[in-house]
Design a protein that fits this description.
- This protein is mostly helical.
- The chain has one domain (2-259).
- Helix content is 85%, strand content 0%.
- The chain has nine helices and no strands.
- It has helices at 2-33, 42-52, 57-78, 87-126, 129-135, 140-179, 183-192, 196-222, 227-259.
- Helix 4 packs across helix 7.
- The termini are far apart.
């Protein structure tokens, strides 16, 4: 009896997840098909770029600095005494470019941007502003999602550049005080371990993570229930599911580009 109940629950949640991803994919396709009208929404795109990019920059820089400091300490203290100190520069560079930079950016913006989008659109739905848009023959996805999507596709990679720079700089400072690694040695390590493909991988991840953040925030905002509780639940789901999907996609992208 209990076993059958568990099977039913697994089937129910699996079906719900598949249906949800299906509706989310339809919204994503709808938003991308609306990009042809981007010239009508230049003002909104710029406004969203400022919201996603410039206003997220302080928290991104602060987080990146402490990530770099932590990496410098952890890598430096666990290196073998027989390993040349300059190797740490390359390890920090590749760790930040390939994983730490995109992941940290994705998770930070999931908590800030995806939550904000879900709360804003959810509130608009509760107060029937989305119905008002439809009554004026305005496509809600085109009006609310597409400008955010375009802004995120440019803002998130731009934020990643700043995050990588400050994280690597902080990693050097931490390495200097941890294992007395000088700037020349740090640059030598980066030179020996730098690959253009790593930069490409990092930017591809940021580009895709920006799309994920916007589309999940918008999807849960459009599907929020009535009342403050419904908007709060939609905000929570947007943060949780965008974070989970970012971690899943991080592995998929890394594996795909590795075997490509």
């Amino acid at each position: 009896m209990n076993f059958n109940l568990y099977i039913e629950k697994i089937g129910y949640y699996t079906r719900t997840a598949i249906e949800g991803y299906g509706r989310l994919s339809i919204m994503l396709f709808h938003a991308f098909s609306s990009i042809r009208k981007f010239h009508l929404y230049i003002g909104q795109i710029v406004e969203q770029f400022i919201y996603i990019g410039r206003r997220s920059l302080p928290i991104v820089i602060i987080t990146s600095v402490f990530i770099g400091l932590a990496l410098g300490v952890q890598i430096g203290t666990q290196m073998s005494p027989l390993t040349p100190a300059w190797v740490e520069g390359g390890l920090i560079l590749r760790s930040i470019l390939l994983e730490m930079g995109p992941i940290i950016i994705g998770l930070i913006l999931s908590g800030r941007v995806a939550a904000g989008i879900a709360a804003e659109i959810g509130t608009m739905k509760v107060t029937e502003q989305i119905d008002a848009l439809r009554s004026f023959a305005i496509d809600p996805v085109e009006y609310l999602v597409m400008p955010r999507l375009i802004a995120a596709m440019f803002a998130v990679p731009a934020l990643l550049v700043f995050a990588d720079f400050f994280a690597i700089l902080a990693g050097f400072i931490s390495s200097y005080f941890t294992i007395n690694l000088g700037w020349e040695g740090f640059l030598k390590g980066m030179y020996h371990n730098f690959y253009v493909s790593d930069v490409f991988t990092s930017l591809v991840k940021a580009f895709i993570f920006g799309i994920v953040i916007v589309i999940f925030g918008s999807y849960f905002g459009f599907n929020s229930n009535r009342g403050a509780n419904g908007v709060g639940k939609a905000t929570t789901l947007a943060v949780v599911w965008s974070s989970v999907d970012i971690l899943m996609l991080d592995y998929v992208i890394s594996a795909f580009l590795f075997f490509l």
